[in-house]
Amino acid sequence: QKEVEQNSGPLSVPEGAIASLNCTYSDRGSQSFFWYRQYSGKSPELIMSIYSNGDKEDGRFTAQLNKASQYVSLLIRDSQPSDSATYLCAVTQDQTGANNLFFGTGTRLTVIP
Amino acid sequence: KAGVTQTPRYLIKTRGQQVTLSCSPISGHRSVSWYQQTPGQGLQFLFEYFSETQRNKGNFPGRFSGRQFSNSRSEMNVSTLELGDSALYLCASSPGDGGLGQYFGPGTRLTVT
């Protein structure tokens, strides 16, 4: 059973602060890792992907992957009220290239103005 | 490029009926995956179609089925609806490889009464 675990939160940070979101996964064979943002009443939106150990930066977002610890995180710098949403961690393990994402339950982030 | 589209957006059905949901992927995307999202279970993978073939299947009963057409459009069907099938059904498209991430449509909100 592939499991992806996230702290459900809610996580509250003041505007301008760094928000840190964490995710662990159980399947050591997991290949690709994604962060999705989901606003209330909307569908998930892909914001970051990471495939190898280390950091990947995109604007205010940084994804970090540590395969040895089976841990992936998302840092949001200079958090804005518009970042308030549920953040979903997703992993795919299949080496055939098939698209079957396993999602965590999400962390609800609130950025306080 | 236009995003993933899903029709209908909302649907109300009676227990025992069947329903067909439709998804048009992003132009050029050959993979279409379907997910069910509920407050209790979160996002769960139903199945994926690639080049008109089911490439992967999640742990759902046989009442859930799908197909993909030569233009990559996909449909999913749920027969003999149960109250527990009430959920947001999300379609996601990808260029093909599981490592490239998936892009979600707005979803179809199904309510079974």
Describe, in plain words, how this protein is organized in 3D.
The complex is a heterodimer of chains A (113) and B (113). By secondary structure, chain A is mostly beta strands. Chain A contains no helices and 11 strands. In chain A, strand 6 and strand 7 form a beta hairpin. Chain B has 113 residues and is mostly beta strands. Chain B has strands at residues 5-7, 10-13, 19-24, 31-38, 42-50, 53-57, 64-68, 74-78, 87-94, 103-104, 108-112. In chain B, strands 2, 4, 5, 6, 9, 10 and 11 form a 7-stranded mixed beta sheet that branches. In chain B, strand 9 and strand 10 form a beta hairpin. Chain B is globular and about 35 Å long. Chains A and B meet through strand 4, strand 5, strand 9 and strand 10 of A and strand 4, strand 5, strand 9 and strand 10 of B.
Brief synopsis:
The complex is a heterodimer of chains A (113) and B (113). Chain A is mainly beta.
Please bin the fraction of helical residues of chain B: under 10%
Instruction: Note the run of SSEs of chain B as H and E.
Output: EEEEEEEEEEE
Q: Flag low-confidence runs of chain A.
A: none
Distance from N terminus to C terminus of chain B (CA atoms, Å) equals 37 Å
Strand elements of chain A, count: 11
* Shape label of chain A: globular
Oligomeric form of this entry?
Answer: heterodimer
Could you tell me the strand content of chain A as a percent range? over 45%
Main attributes of the structure:
heterodimer; A: 113 residues; mainly beta; six-stranded mixed β-sheet; five-stranded antiparallel β-sheet; globular; B: 113 residues; seven-stranded mixed β-sheet; four-stranded antiparallel β-sheet
Write the layout of secondary structure elements.
The complex is a heterodimer of chains A (about 110) and B (about 110).
Chain A: E1 4-6, E2 11-14, E3 19-25, E4 32-38, E5 45-50, E6 54-58, E7 61-66, E8 71-76, E9 85-92, E10 102-103, E11 107-112
Parallel strand pairs in A: 2-11
Antiparallel strand pairs in A: 1-3, 3-8, 4-5, 4-9, 6-7, 7-8, 9-10, 9-11
Chain B: E1 5-7, E2 10-13, E3 19-24, E4 31-38, E5 42-50, E6 53-57, E7 64-68, E8 74-78, E9 87-94, E10 103-104, E11 108-112
Parallel strand pairs in B: 2-11
Antiparallel strand pairs in B: 1-3, 3-8, 4-5, 4-9, 5-6, 7-8, 9-10, 9-11
